Amino acid sequence: MQYEAKTPREYMAMLEPDWRKEKLETLRSLIKLKAPDFTEAINYKMLSYGNEQGVAFHLNAQKNYVSLYVGDANKIDPDRSLLNGLDTGKGCIRFKKSLSIKKTRIDEFLERAVQYWKDGKDIGC
C-alpha cells in the first residue's frame, strides 16, 4: 500500500492500529537499535533508513504483510541461515500476521546488513 505521508510520524499515524502496525513498530525498533546512526525518512512513499551513502532499507505496511526491503538478501545471507523460515523475495522480506518476529533471526540479519553497508559492500539488487 502507498501512504502519502511526508514524515515518518505522519506515516505511522496513517496506519490502522492492527497487527501490521505492531509488526512495523517492532521492525522499526530493531532497525533503530542495529543502525542508530541511520536517519529515518520517507522515500518512495515508505519508511526509509540510511546515511550519507544513501538508503539501506525500506519498510512498508502492505495489505497482508509488512515488507522489509533490503536490496539483495542473498548478498547479506548467502546460505539463508539468518532468513530460514521467512517469506523472502530477492530483496524483500515479508512478515505476515502469524509470524513471531522474536522467533526469527532478523536482528542478526539486520546487524550484518548494516555492517556490510558501513563497510561499503554492495548489498543492492
Q: Quick recap of the structure?
A:
With 125 residues, this protein is of the alpha+beta class. It contains 4 helices and 6 strands; from the N terminus they run ααββββαββα.
What is the CATH architecture assignment? Alpha-Beta Complex
Percent strand: 15-25%
Number of domains: 1
What is the rounded distance between the termini? 21 Å
Count all strands and give the number.
6
CATH level 1 class label: Alpha Beta
The major sheet is characterized as: 6 strands, antiparallel
Order of strands across the biggest sheet?
1-2-3-4-6-5
Question: What's the rounded overall pLDDT mean?
Answer: 94
Count of DSSP-assigned helices: 4
As a percent range, the share of helical residues equals 25-40%
Task: Give a written overview of the molecule.
- This protein is of the alpha+beta class.
- The chain has a single domain, classed as Aspartate Aminotransferase, domain 1 (Alpha-Beta Complex), CATH 3.90.1150.
- The protein has helices spanning 8-14, 19-34, 73-76, 106-118; strands at residues 39-43, 46-51, 54-61, 66-69, 87-88, 92-95.
- The chain has a six-stranded antiparallel sheet with strand order 1-2-3-4-6-5, with helices on one face.
- β2 (46-51) and β3 (54-61) form a beta hairpin.
- 30% of the residues are buried.
- The mean pLDDT is 94.
What structural keywords apply?
125 residues, alpha+beta, Aspartate Aminotransferase, domain 1, 32% helix, globular
What is the secondary structure topology, with strand pairs?
Blueprint (H helix, E strand, L loop, with lengths): L7 H7 L4 H16 L4 E5 L2 E6 L2 E8 L4 E4 L3 H4 L10 E2 L3 E4 L10 H13 L7
